[in-house]
Request: fold
Amino acid sequence: MTAASFDPRREARHRRGRIFRWLCLSAVWFAGLTLVVLLVKVTADGVPWLSLDFIRNYPSRIPARAGIRSAILGTLWMMALTGAVSFPLGVGAAVYLEEYAPDNWLTRLLQTNIANLAGVPSIVYGILGLTVFVRVFALGRSVLAGALTLALLILPVVIIASREALRAVPPSLREASYGLGATRWQTIRYHVLPVALPGILTGTILSLSRAIGETAPLIMIGALTFIAFPPTSPLDPFTVLPIQIFNWTAKPQADFHSLAAAAIIVLLLILLAMNATAILLRNKYRQEL
Amino acid sequence: MRTTFKAGTVGLAIPLVAGAIACGGGGGVSEGGLGGMVTLDGSSTVFPISEAMAEEFQIANPGVRVTVGISGTGGGFKKFCGGETDISDASRPIKDSERELCAENGIVPIEVPVAWDGLTVVINPENDWAACMTVDELKRVWQPGSTVSRWSDVRDGWPDMEMKLYGPGTDSGTFDYFTDAIVGEEDASRPDYTASEDDNVLVVGVEGDQEALGYFGFAYYEENQERLNSVAIDNGLGCVSPTRETIESGEYAPLSRPMFIYLNSSALARPEVRAFVEFYLTNSSALVPEVGYVPLGGGRYDELLAGLPAAD
Reply:
């Protein structure tokens, strides 16, 4: 090949590069603009309705009196119980699968199933929750039944995230621990888990952030739409923010649509607070290492 | 107040909101007053009435907890006949199969009509031809296998424009009632229309489409009168528009429909349930119109109140 026959096609190659870059950029803009439009619309509709009374009052048929007290408290109860159930179960399952389980067909079958469960539509968990928790365990339409249902819903994601975190712990750490005579329990307890904890916490909180927006499975198990008292025990009936939002958007009066927007803002703030907590926890534990 | 969760549950520091609601009183049992819980579930159409009643009743009786769900008329009866709820909201009468289910569990339902709704057929304000339609014309449009695809297919002289149909989904009691009243057979409808369980979606659809025809509950029409026009219905006695008066008198036929609550007769023996039902019937004349429905006229509520089985 002579130098004369070599065509570098520099123009064409660079043009292709520019087009690709431009396509990627418009993908970013598309996602970003959609979000901005939604946020602006919700903020414009909802902010005038946000007030301390809106957070303190119970729902009402009169828009000016309506608030989300029972919905917020229901959501907080729900998240606390869901976290309390799914965290130990999820981390336990992940530790077993990563640290103890032999690599055989059974383990692989379990792993595949867990990954598949993460993709099951949430309404299916609602049907399961209605049959098992509400009817068989006779928990009724309680916060606990709802929390167990949502815990099952996010469990696969918690397990997967925890396993990723455990896998990221360098094997040399375990080997050093064994080398000093530590047992497997001591190694996991004092060396593996502390290192993996930030990742596990982040995964769990992000899963809870998914659970907080769930409506369908909770309506399925019979969460209530109008309730003017807060839950005081795990066996009390409840409602949650997404159900309150759903209910208000379906009303004929336009004022309720604005109330729904205000409730969406509150839900977003709770979400942001949760995600910020995830980041803070991660940074805190990282520094301590 | 014991409302907030225990600290220490991982990752649930949500101080912003929790702090803001930590103050203020919760509803405990008031001294000497009624206590206990009254549970309602069922139709989302009847929900606004029961919601208003539950709200006012709890203001008057702070010791009683009232909850209202929206499982739909059918879903509500499943829970009601399983003994899970005290009162069922229904936008249609109970079916025989549901009665049997109740009987199997030893539950005797008592039917109480509480309000009227008028299913309203709506068109776009720019539609200046279809101000009135006969029941037969509506039937030809909506029946299964209907060949009507243009407005000119409905009546000679109407414009040769496409007809776009909007209506509630098949799970809705509104759908059950409309098909029964217009087509003559419950749940028989052409399938090729834009269906939504959310009536606000239908409002937006008809508002933006000159060729549209849709139907939904009167409350949604009343709230959106400046964006939509209603179609007067000719049931053989001339055109009647849906208004509060024509719905109450029954003149707006056949699309005026009653809405019910069903009471569990043994739950009615509980003083808090009985008090709630009596409150419901006493306050319907005032609260029903407030949430967009038409109250029963002519002293019907007093008759119903008197007709409740006597307390033991």
